[in-house]
Structures are given as structure tokens and as C-alpha cells.
Amino acid sequence: MTPPTPADLKARYPEFAAIDDARVQYWLTDAERTVTTDWSEADYAVGLMTLAAHEMVTNGEVGAGDQVSGLLAKGITDFRSASFSASFDASVAQRAAAGGYSSTRYGQAFAVLLRRNTAGPRLVGCAWPC
Questions:
Q1: Three-state SS sequence of 46-68
Q2: What is the dihedral of CA 4, 10, 11, 14, to 10 degrees?
Q3: Which residue range is the domain that position 35 belongs to?
Q4: How many CB atoms neighbour CB 89 within 10 A?
Q5: In whole angstroms, how far apart are CA 120 and each of 37, 48, 50?
Q6: Does the structure show a pLDDT above 60 at 122?
Q7: Is 69 inside any structural domain?
Q8: Contact by Cβ (8 Å): 48, 4
Q9: pTM summary value
Q10: Nearest 5 degrees, angle CA 32-CA 35-CA 37?
Q11: pLDDT of 69-95, one tens digit each?
Q12: Is 30 helix (H, G, I), strand (E, B) or coil?
């Protein structure tokens, strides 16, 4: 399986276009510690890109607040400018505060792929008769 390139990630997620290719490559390589070639071929590249995107957001590589869509993703429901007033969606703020994969939309997508590509619980030593 061929890992995605920074150009692949930026094509899938244009909001990362301003990030230097070397930084994107760093996070793609870092994601290979979690997403292995044991994953299905269809999910491998997407898994690497979603995990890298999640890590870039949570580690401050990109500020999604640079665009209106980024503000909406962060849970801002109302924004005024004169004497600054902002309202936040409580459920989005709660997810972000909880941390983990649920704190970003990329992490949420990665969690679905992770569940699909990793084994569930394994039972050992429970053969009949006991």
C-alpha cells in the first residue's frame, strides 16, 4: 500500500493548503505508527490523512478559525465585531473539552475507521469444558 503525500492530504482537506509540505509529511509519517498496512486497502490512505489532520489541528499546526467555516466547526453560532460578542454551541465545546478523537471532525472520522480496522476483544483459555 502506498501512503498518501502532502498533496493528497491537501486535496482531500483544502483547509491545510497553507501548511508547509514538510510539516504535513511529518504528521503523515507519525500517523503510520497507528495506521498500519494491516488496515484494509480502501481505508489505509484515508486513515493516515484523517489522523494526520486531527493531530495537526490538536497540536496547533492549523487554526481552523481563519475562515467562517472554521468558526462554525469550532461551535461558534453567533459572532459580532464592534465590542466582540460570540456564542458557542455547548455540544461542540463539550466535545472539544473531552479531548481525544471526538474533539475534531477529523478525529471523529478517524475513530470510525479505527473501529472498522482493528480487532475487538479476544478471549483466551475459555474453551469448553472448563
A1: HHHHHHHHHHHHHCCCCCHHHCH
A2: 160
A3: 6-75+92-118
A4: 14
A5: 18, 21, 21
A6: yes
A7: yes
A8: yes
A9: 0.71
A10: 95
A11: 455 455 666 666 677 766 666 665 565
A12: helix
CA–CA dist 124, 102 (Å, integer): 31
In a domain, 26, yes or no: yes
Phi-psi category of residue 39: left, alpha or beta, with phi > 0 → left and psi -120 to 50 → alpha: beta
- Residue 66 confidence (pLDDT) above 50: no
Q: What is d(CA 28, CA 35) in angstroms, rounded to the nearest whole number?
A: 10
For residue 30 the three cell numbers come to: 507519525
Q: Is residue 15 part of a domain?
A: yes
Whether 1 maps to a domain, the answer reads no
For the chain, give the mean pLDDT.
82
Judged by DSSP in three states, 83 sits in coil
Alpha-carbon span 11 to 70, nearest angstrom: 17
| Amino acid identity at 31 | A
Q: How far apart are CA 75 and CA 85, in angstroms?
A: 14
What's the grid cell of residue 119?
480487532
Number of domains in the chain: 1
Backbone φ and ψ for 33, nearest 5 degrees, come out as: -70, -25
